[in-house]
Design goal:
two-stranded antiparallel ribbon; two-stranded antiparallel sheet; binds zinc ion; single chain; alpha+beta
Length: 79
């Protein structure tokens, strides 16, 4: 297969586009993952609003302040 200059230029442009896209995806994924990790650890009790961090992998967590069961994850906004 013969590679002409036009083919080469197209290849370089296409390659840099792919590189930029890959870099954007990787940095976004890393950022989202770091953010999600800190968010997943932070729990605000729905009863007493006591904020605490956990490293447990369970979905239901017990508030160390009042003992209420809390679901892990982002607090749901009402309204
Ligand atoms: Zn509580």
């Amino acid at each position: 297969m013969e590679l002409t200059l036009a083919d080469f230029v197209l290849l370089v442009i296409f390659g840099s586009c792919v590189l930029v896209l890959a870099f954007t995806l990787v940095s976004r994924t890393l950022h989202a993952r770091a953010e999600g990790r800190s968010l997943a650890r932070r729990v605000v009790c729905r009863l007493c609003l006591h904020a605490f961090e956990t490293r447990e992998n369970t979905e239901i967590l017990t508030c160390p302040s009042c003992g209420a069961a809390n679901e892990k994850g982002r607090p749901r906004r009402l309204g």
